[in-house]
């Protein structure tokens, strides 16, 4: 039986997300998709109109998976491999590293997704600041995933406008809340990741309520909108279309990122040298 490859990839968060699943998880997901499509085909032949009901894990079942892994899910992709393979030696960074250098040499796991996200935002006519926020919103996941919105805003705060940092920081909280006015629905992927009965912690709810009333609400909301659907394995986007936007809106330090003595220079050095033991 042939399956809709794109629909399958999208349902799991795209090729980038699937590459970080172990072989057992991928096999289970494929079997689930094939069964779903088989049931849909049978229903169609029988004239059935019933909507498929997916089986998602509970939050307790998701928590039970913790002790089955050899890594903690919140660790960044550069720090802990999700593939089970040994890591490779990284190429040296230039002495005065630019943001583009980090995209080419360090953001290997996140670059394709954020480039697609920024490309989608550009096609949708978003402002240059929202396009830049989409370009930057997830790259901090190379070193840490937990609360990546806050970590990501901190990483970029010295180099971007307050509005761009706001969009990066709060896109994380808004992902958990639908907004029909812009066509944003709660993602099925989160039911799979967190459990069908998952309730965001109180600080996420409080953050959402605060941002919902803020004058810049639409900035992080548009990052979330252009984030969700930016997983297409058939689309390849380079950094080149965004270099002008970076030049206009990113304050590149002349000493190079990590060498400028900023309050976040250590974070850039961690991305530069993730194999450093201390």
List keywords for this structure.
single chain; Hypothetical protein af1432; globular; 278 residues
The end-to-end span amounts to 51 Å
Compute the gyration radius: what is it? 20 Å
Mean of residue pLDDT values: 85
Please tell me the CATH architecture of the largest domain by its name.
Orthogonal Bundle
Q: Kindly estimate the percentage of residues that lie in beta strands according to DSSP.
A: under 5%
CATH class of the largest domain: Mainly Alpha
Enumerate the spans where pLDDT stays under 50 for 5 or more consecutive residues. Answer: 21-25
Descriptive account of the structure:
The chain is an all-alpha fold and 278 residues long. It folds into two domains: 5-55; 99-272, Hypothetical protein af1432 (Orthogonal Bundle). 49% of the residues lie in helices and 0% in strands. α9 packs across α12. The longest helix is centred in the first third of the chain and has 23 residues, at 23-45.
In short:
With 278 residues, the chain is mainly α.
Mind sketching the topology for me?
Layout: H1 5-11, H2 15-19, H3 23-45, H4 59-64, H5 99-105, H6 111-123, H7 128-136, H8 148-156, H9 162-174, H10 188-194, H11 202-212, H12 218-228, H13 243-249, H14 265-272
Helix pairs in contact: 6-7, 6-12, 7-9, 7-12, 8-9, 9-12
